[in-house]
Amino acid sequence: GVDLSGVWIIDRRVGASTRAPIDQRIMRDGAGQPVPAQPWAQKLYDDNVEGERVGRTFVTPSTLCLPHGMPEMMTGAAYPIEIIQQPGKVAFIHELQRAFRLVYLDRGHKPDPDPTYHGDSVGHWEGDTLVIDTIGLNGKNVLDMLGMPTSEKMHVVERITRPAHNKLDIKLTIDDPGVFTRTWEQHVTYSLQPREVEIGEYICEDGN
To answer: Which residue of 72, 122, 143, 192 could cross-link 76, Cys pair, CB 3.0 to 4.6 Å?
Structure first.
């Protein structure tokens, strides 16, 4: 493997920001195409989009101080993350909601993981690529600020590379037969921050 440690900030949030025009915030896959949602999920999402157009903002779980969860915590957070590596483990420390995520390199998945927001993540190196496999998600997450749903069947595979000293490239494969008709991909990049940048305090409940 390679050294991924440092403080990183996402270059472009999936779904853009809440200030972007609505058509720029609609969820698309890594090729810019609509995600392959099942009819019930697409209807739910379309209703959220139309509500946004008339000023009825969708209330995300994170608005209620609940975790962003996987994979949105890696694709939609505008706050920095710090990566810390140890033998057998990689830690992702998020400024957003003071969340942390541990990826275990020295074990397989738990036989029956309790469903959680972040899931059960295990990884291995394929040359210079860190491959992370996440299951055990609770279906309470959404994939973007417009509320694309998820289910407990979601399975996420991340492939993380460092193509340059100051860049991380993350390709995510999303498989959720409870919501989507097929597997699809997302792609984000992160930029390395100067050494003096540190993870700050973020207390959602204070003043929310």
So the answer is: 72
Cα(59)–Cα(55) distance, rounded to whole angstroms? 12
168: Cβ contacts below 8 Å, ≥ 6 apart: 4, 8, 160, 161, 162, 189, 190, 191, 192
Alpha-carbon distance 147 to 155, whole Å?
A: 18
CA atoms within 13 A on the CB side of 150: 29
Looking only at the bridges linking them, the beta strands covering 100-104 and 120-126 are parallel
Quick one: tokens of 159? 């492939």
With a threshold of 0.90, does the pTM exceed it? yes
Q: Token pair 């997302």 is at which residue?
A: 186
160-170 residue pLDDT tens: 999 999 999 99
Could you report the per-residue pLDDT of 45-89, keeping only the tens digit for each? 999 999 989 988 888 888 888 988 999 999 988 899 999 999 999
